[in-house]
Hints:
The protein is mainly beta. The protein has five helices and 26 strands. Strand 20 and strand 21 form a beta hairpin.
Amino acid sequence: MRPKPHSPTKAPPILPEELIEEILVRVPASTLVKLKIVCKSWNALISNPEFTSDNVYRSRADPRLVYRSRSKCKIHFSSVQSLFKNPSALLTKDCCFEMDDDLHILGSCNGLICLGLISGPFHLGSIRLWNPCTRSASDWLKIRAIDGDMYGFGYDHVHDNYKFLECCWRYGHKIHTFGSNYSTTIVQDPPSYHPKLGIGTFVYGTLNWAAQARSNSLEWVILSFDLASENFAPLSLPDINNRDEYYDPAVGVLRDRLCVCLKENYGGWILWVMEEYGVQESWTKLLTLFSNEHVYPPIFYSFKAMYMTEKDDVLAVSSQFFKLVIIKANDVRTSQRNFVDADHQNCYVYHESLVSPSHLGLPSFHY
Length: 367
């Protein structure tokens, strides 16, 4: 009996390029970095700035917490989801970057972290943009800011640019625009308000500070800077009659909405969110945190809200203890708190991406 001839091996099916792109654009950036070596076409696709921008909004990567330890020379990353799964456990550090200099984290946006280099007592002398996922960083850019000045980093979605605000009372106010044509422009003087903190909170194309009126220390507003129009404007706080004016408000961000934490007279701490940015009537009470009678030692400063889960649990940072706080939406009185040795001004939620400083026209390097 004659043996049957072997049938030729079929080539594996080839997916259309459009479908491959639809699949890859949803993959976390840290995985895409490894997939660039699969083939030349994947490398070209993943390196494309347009693909990079789409991946920022469509990736399903879990967020991470980035913070500078009090030792000043270490920047840590930790899983946000693990904090909520086991709040009582010690913070698990995914990775740690050793820094040679005294650096501050000035903001995090679309996978880029803005680092500030301290060049003297209370003097911020340079900034750099850093993407830890792609291990790329820009060269240092000279600025001039001292203690009490305002600054911030964010994304202008109207003009598709990343910008850094350098608001220096002594040397003038500038906006640095990163892109194919790097530019520096002079901006108007801010209204007559004094910000509580120097670093602005980025929310949907704006930078925001809790600020006091210079003529009345009990009058508070949110000082807003629009990155597209490059103008300042004051926003009123939620209209409540029983706010304790002796406790400072704190500005945060939850689900891309402006958030503020206020203290009620003889009551708890209240988280408010602005459902529609810039619309005073859209302030909505989100939840009431624990009051001082449930906390020891007593709390005299507000909480900066940073992240909210699908179950409405909130991750915040306390400026009094320099510690992280987890507030369970369904169990406020017995909120479990996970404390970390972190600087509250150097603590952000970080979303990994492929956005590189070189995409913004900045001289940069890989390490």
